[in-house]
Amino acid sequence: SSSPRATEGGHHGRSVRRPDCECRETQLGVRFDVRQQLGAFTPDPDAVATFPTAPSRALILGLDVTSSRARFNPRPSPIPQQNARASASQQRPQPSTSSVAREFPRLLQKSSAELAELLTDKEVFARFLHGTEGALEARAFTRELRLEIEGMCRANIEKAEEARDLRSQMSVIRSCDAQPVKDGYEAARAKADALMGKHNLGDALARLKERARDAEEKAESLSEDLVAGKIEPKDFLAKYVPLRQTHHEDTVRAEIVEPALASRRPGGGPPQPPPPPPGAPPAASRYGGM
């Protein structure tokens, strides 16, 4: 009697009625043509551990692997072609069992039934790969990396809050601490403008320069009297020092007022120099000094 053929349904899963029939395993995307001449076959555990993939599983079982896209077309005399394919599969290079055992040592501890289930069930195979040492190490590394990134994110969030606090403190300082200084400057500026409105700066500058020249002339006269012997050194020092001090102060004041007065004129003038910093020595006068 002729052997019944396996149905080629569109459902998923393995559809096999008898080991001496031709079947298709649509779930793995390959078709296994089992011929009656191969007889019954029991997979070897070592060979099963060597081939964890779907095409390799077919080679382990000694089956013929063809493309799932090829249409099923039975031939009247399959024995010569089947023998040729079997000899070709035997000539293919086989992976080393020791390398697979070194990478997947758990395969050596499984029985033939467990290995057969591992080869035919996708979920079992996925759980096996999920529990391998490499997968465990990858998940541990990912977990450590995620924890490190979370710690860096927390540090950045804390720094952002600190920066926000500093900005608020700066705004408070600008609005509160700087306000008294600004008010004092405005008051001094208003007072200076009022005084300048009441007095003529040109006349005041002329008087300063005139007093500085008078003090310098008197100091020179005292120097000549000292050289001529008309005055004692003690009396010379008592009169000469105040004259030179008055000359120096009036000269410095004139140097400060003159640029400001020139900048207020319609024609303009050089800008007023900035005031010297606190504790700095007085600027040298072009009229000389002590």
From TrEMBL:
Domain spans labelled VPS37 C-terminal: 109-253
Low complexity: bias regions: 80-99
Pfam families xref list: Mod_r
UniProt keyword list: Coiled coil, Endosome, Protein transport, Transport
Compartments, record wording: Endosome
GO biological process, one term: protein targeting to membrane
Highest taxon of the lineage: Eukaryota
A GO CC term attached to the entry: ESCRT I complex
Signal peptide location: none
Record's compositionally biased regions (Pro residues): 268-281
Basic and acidic residues bias spans: 247-256
Recorded coiled-coil stretches: 198-232
Region (Disordered): 1-22, 69-103, 247-290
Protein family per UniProt: Belongs to the VPS37 family.
Designated name of the protein: VPS37 C-terminal domain-containing protein
